[in-house]
TrEMBL record:
Listed name of the protein: Urea ABC transporter ATP-binding subunit UrtE
SUPFAM superfamilies in alphabetical order: P-loop containing nucleoside triphosphate hydrolases (SSF52540)
Gene Ontology molecular function: any one: ATP binding
A UniProt-annotated Pfam family: ABC_tran
Gene from which this protein is expressed: urtE
Domain ABC transporter residue range list: 2-230
UniProt keyword terms in alphabetical order: Amino-acid transport, ATP-binding, Cell membrane, Membrane, Nucleotide-binding, Transport
Entries under InterPro entries matching the protein: AAA+_ATPase, ABC_transporter-like_ATP-bd, ABC_transptr_urea_ATP-bd_UrtE, BCAA_Transport_ATP-bd_LivF, P-loop_NTPase
Family: Belongs to the ABC transporter superfamily.
Length: 230
């Protein structure tokens, strides 16, 4: 589904991503692990077209997208849940969900399924985004990304600052979405246990480079916990 090959990215003179290559497959959760500042968010922003890459290629279903606008990438089927959630605080929950449909035709309804995945959103439909708890905002950010029915869902540290019960709910939803078999999921995570539980495949980054990768079930045996312990 997703094939990232030899991507290099710079902020000014700093070489941030160094020949990063990875793949993600439909029906699977690919977890990207790495400590603070190793370039995880920069990689996702490069994937979304929010920062330009210098060299390398990004293919979605075999089509090169590295020169496409963020809008075109969303249309091509990538849903993005940014780090820090980026909920519109002054818009209602319903309006935030509609933002996820911004590039669809005006009459596209919000899929009712989102309220089954996250029942709390239905109860809070007319509340402002800014009035939700951190965990509720995270669920809203995921639902907003799912509204347009993406083929690839990309999440940047969804457990950051969230209470354990909601982390569990989010984990269950991610697993269920992958198991349905019509979506690939890329999950950036620093919380090892959550990553281990969900990973079908894992990738570890250090200083802008991929330093390890393999099957999720081998993470423990391969000593990945030590590589990412903070
Ligand atoms: N807009 C920017 N301009 C210049 N340097 C930046 C910019 N954004 C990030 N960086 C630098 O790029 C490097 C990678 O940052 P990035 O945010 O991708 O890391 P990360 O792995 O997502 O970290 P975290 O786990 O803290 O979210 C860091 O050294 C950071 O200081
Ligand atoms: Mg980050």
């Amino acid at each position: 589904m997703l094939n990232i090959k030899n991507v290099n990215q710079y902020y000014g003179g700093s070489h941030i991503l160094r020949d990063v290559s990875l793949q993600a497959h439909t029906g699977k959760v690919t977890v990207i692990l790495g400590r603070n500042g190793v370039g995880k968010t920069t990689l996702l922003k490069s994937l979304m077209g929010l920062v330009p890459i210098k060299t390398g290629s990004i293919e979605l279903e075999g089509k090169a997208i590295q020169d496409a606008t963020p809008y075109a990438r969303a249309r091509a089927g990538i849903g993005f849940v940014p780090q820090g959630r980026e909920i519109f605080a002054r818009l209602t929950v319903e309006e935030n969900l509609r933002m996820g449909l911004a590039y669809k035709s005006g009459s596209t309804p919000i899929p009712a399924e989102l309220y089954e995945l996250f029942p709390v959103l239905k109860q809070m439909l007319h509340r402002r985004g800014g009035d939700l708890s951190g965990g509720q905002q995270q669920q809203l950010a995921i639902a907003r990304a799912l509204a347009a029915k993406p083929k690839l869902l990309v999440l940047d540290e969804p457990t950051e600052g969230i209470q354990p019960s909601i982390i569990k709910d989010i984990g269950r939803v991610i697993r269920m979405l992958a198991d349905r078999g019509d979506m690939a999921i890329v999950l950036v995570e620093q919380y090892y246990d959550f990553a281990r539980e969900l990973a079908d495949d894992y990738v570890v980054m250090e200083r802008g480079e991929v330093v390890a990768q393999g099957l999720g079930k081998d993470m423990e045996a391969n000593g990945i916990r030590k590589l990412v312990a903070i």
